[in-house]
Design goal:
- By secondary structure, this protein is an all-alpha fold.
- It folds into two domains: 219 residues, Up-down Bundle (Growth Hormone, Chain: A), CATH 1.20.1250; 190 residues, Growth Hormone, Chain: A (Up-down Bundle), CATH 1.20.1250.20.
- It has 17 helices and no strands.
- The two termini are 22 Å apart.
Length: 436
């Protein structure tokens, strides 16, 4: 079989990578989890840490900031498309380095904001380079390296990320208390900039660029990762290579996008307004905090289990299962009248989150291949960011209009149930690869 490792731009001497006692892709998993943790300033829960002092500092109202945040999130989502193209063109190593640099500079700029116009500019950049671009590059760092064990790799990534987010939130809380929001945000910006050289040193774009075969199997079932006699072209191992236009015509693509989007819509709404939502069912603030802990803990367990099950043939069925569990949790909400009922609801939402997260991170490589992975994932990421921005607005407006969260929860439950059924029926076959 003809090797492509030495013909790729930026290909390195394979000796040091082949001599390692482990597959270098696992280093990329660690890098990706750190990079995704660094998206904190561009995420709702990260911005939530400084919202109140920011509003007081700039004399903004909650409603005014909510509108600014919504517009900035939508505009920032557009960063996914060009960044996805750049990943495919230049590789994850270069783009991860540049996006992290841009995010660090944007966070520093936001820490010195003096008015509403400046806030809009820097918030677009922080949302765009953080929540959108760096998130996209982070899971591409793994997807470009794994195929056979992609589900396990993404499950490990999700587990590391959970601890990363918990640690970063707690650390930022301490910094904000000591340095005020501007000092803490400034320190965060410099911390992100400090990751730039580390990412460039330790990240590699593909196994082939390092003279490795990749996480694939030979026809006889033997593992070829590590140090084969001759590096093997991953693309030749019967992996589908689907163009963006063909992916967009695929039912599998839209099931994955819509399923992930409706989950993100629900998740962003129920976590942002967690206390208010549960207080409507008679659960106090302490109980609401307990539910957030359950979401995180159950989500971790679901990450591991779904990661061990994830492969190309099961991917859509896993998405369907995650949506079915989400529908059950949403259907149960109007009947919550005790702490145990709230725990059931939290377990359902957390389980769904663990499943859908692993599917969203790993499905694209399994079903569409690696050649156009950045662009395909970028399109999907754009849709999910838009859904995340819409979720809190939709749930808050529905409650304000109807006087209850119940109708919107029931409507979303029906939508999840219908999508779950479709996900179980659709096959993960696309274009010329159909029937494989």
């Amino acid at each position: 079989m003809t090797s492509t490792a030495h013909s790729q731009p930026g290909a390195e001497s394979p000796t040091r990578f082949q001599s390692l006692p482990f597959y270098y892709g696992w280093i990329n998993v660690l890098v990706a989890s750190i990079a995704m943790t660094a998206t904190l300033p561009g995420r709702t829960h990260g911005l939530g840490l400084i919202t109140e002092p920011l509003l007081a500092d700039l004399s903004l109202t909650t409603t005014g900031f909510a509108r600014i945040n919504f517009v900035c999130t939508i505009l920032g989502a557009a960063f996914c498309i060009p960044v996805g193209w750049l990943i495919d063109r230049y590789g994850v190593r270069v783009i991860l380095t540049l996006v992290t640099l841009a995010l660090g500079v944007s966070v520093l700029g936001m820490s010195h904001v003096g008015g509403t116009a400046e806030l809009v500019l820097w918030l677009i950049l922080v949302r765009g380079f953080g929540q959108s671009a760096l998130s996209l590059v982070s899971f591409s760092v793994i997807s470009k390296w794994f195929r056979r064990r992609l589900g396990i790799a993404m499950a490990m990534f999700a587990v590391l990320l959970t601890f990363g987010f918990i640690g970063s939130v707690l650390s930022m809380g301490v910094l904000i208390e000591k340095l005020q929001w501007r000092g803490a945000w400034n320190a965060l910006g410099w911390t992100i900039l400090g990751l730039v050289p580390l990412f460039y040193l330790f990240t590699r774009s593909t196994p082939e660029s390092c003279g490795l075969a990749g996480d694939v199997e030979r026809d006889d079932g033997g593992d070829v990762e590590g140090n084969p006699p001759e590096p093997i072209d991953d693309h030749a191992m019967d992996e589908p290579q689907v163009t963006v236009s063909l992916a967009l015509k695929s039912p599998a693509f839209w099931v994955l996008v819509l399923g992930s989007s409706i989950f993100n819509l629900v998740w962003s709404g129920v976590t942002l307004f967690n206390e208010s939502i549960l207080s409507a069912r008679g659960i106090d603030a302490a109980g609401a905090a307990q539910m957030m802990a359950i979401l995180a803990g159950v989500g971790l367990l679901a990450n591991v289990v779904s990661g061990s099950l994830a492969n190309r043939d099961r991917m859509l069925k896993l998405m369907g299962s995650g949506l079915l569990v989400l529908a059950i949790g949403l259907f149960a909400f109007p009947w919550i009248d005790s702490l145990n009922g709230a725990r059931f609801y939290a377990v359902a939402i957390g389980t769904s989150g663990g499943i859908v997260t692993v599917v969203f991170f790993s499905a694209w490589r399994h079903i569409f291949g690696s050649q156009y992975l950045g662009r395909i994932q970028g399109t999907a990421q754009l849709a999910t960011v838009l859904a995340s921005a819409t979720g809190p607005v939709l749930i808050a407006e529905a409650e304000a209009t109807l006087g209850s969260y119940d109708p919107v929860f029931m409507t979303l439950a029906v939508c999840c149930l219908l999508l779950a059924g479709v996900a179980w029926l659709v096959k993960p076959s696309v274009g010329p690869n159909r029937g494989r």
